[in-house]
Amino acid sequence: MGFSLSWVAVAPSVEKALVERFGLTERDETAELAEFDLNGARLPGWYLLVADHSDALVDEQLLKDLSKHGRVIAAMVEEHVMCSSAEEWSNGERVWGLSHLSDAGILHLGVEGALPEAYHAIHQKQFDEQEKAGGKKADVDHIIDIPLDLAAAITGYRHDMEGPTFNEMEAAHELAAAEQRPIDGVSCDRGLDKRSSTSYQQERSNKPGFFARLFGRP
Question: Taking the model in full, what pTM does it have?
Answer without folding.
Answer: 0.84
